[in-house]
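The passage that follows is intended for readers who have already worked through the single-chain material. We present the inputs for a multi-component assembly, then the predicted structure in tokenized form, and finally a short commentary. You are encouraged to pause after the input and sketch how you expect the pieces to fit together before reading on.
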Amino acid sequence: MGFDFEATFKSMVSAAQTELANDSELIRNQMKQILEDEKERLKLIAAIRLDPTATRAEFDTALQNEKSVLENAALALEIQVRATAQKAVNAAINALNDALNTAIRAL
Amino acid sequence: MRYKRTQTTVYWALALFLFLLFGCTQVKLVADYDKEVLADTFDLARRVDFFWANYIEATGEQRGYDTIKNEIIAIEVEMNSLLLKNEARDQNSQTTSQVKNVIAIWAGITELFRSQGHISNTSAKAYRRQLSDAFKYIVTGEKSKDISKNNQ
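Having made your guess, compare it with the prediction:
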């Protein structure tokens, strides 16, 4: 009984690529949304600076907050990338398992 | 002929090795999706947003720290509870950090209320949006973990 490693490897790569292709658009859209959100928040922070009723401490707090918000955005992207990698690797492993199960059953 | 047989043996050995290595397990890089924690996050985000909506509409003494102190503390407790729930989950360091960031934002604003007594509406609107987006990114991250429809 022969085991076609080349064909199995190709199906592993193909399974992983399908997952990566499905999620790459999602990641792009997420990044675009993050930048649009940032633009809106910066307008609100600038308004604090221009408002005579707002204190310097309020402006400084807004700037400090912004760092945390941006970190949350980056972390959300990181989770998406890790989830995509997990799906891709597991799709490849499943393809290998399927090929091996088929080969073992034929023994 | 002999070379071909050796090559087949090597492929089988390699395949069996990979099977033993990965066959019984799956790679896990993110925490399992938890819809209860997601619901808690939505509830807390709504409560924080409700706080700001009320504050922006409030006038006079209603805007003072003494009046809003209880709600600020209640929200802080809810945030700490959400942090605990996230810390208890395996492979969840990113979401845990996100909740810590929300707590840091809230702590900074609380300190402002304590020191100034009240804040301007311009700042309230900016902080409202910042917290809303900070929660949105927690939700986005949690939803990314929902990979049950795929192979996990």
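Commentary: DSSP finds two helices and no strands in chain A. Chain A touches chain B through 51 residues (CB under 8 Å). How closely did your sketch match?
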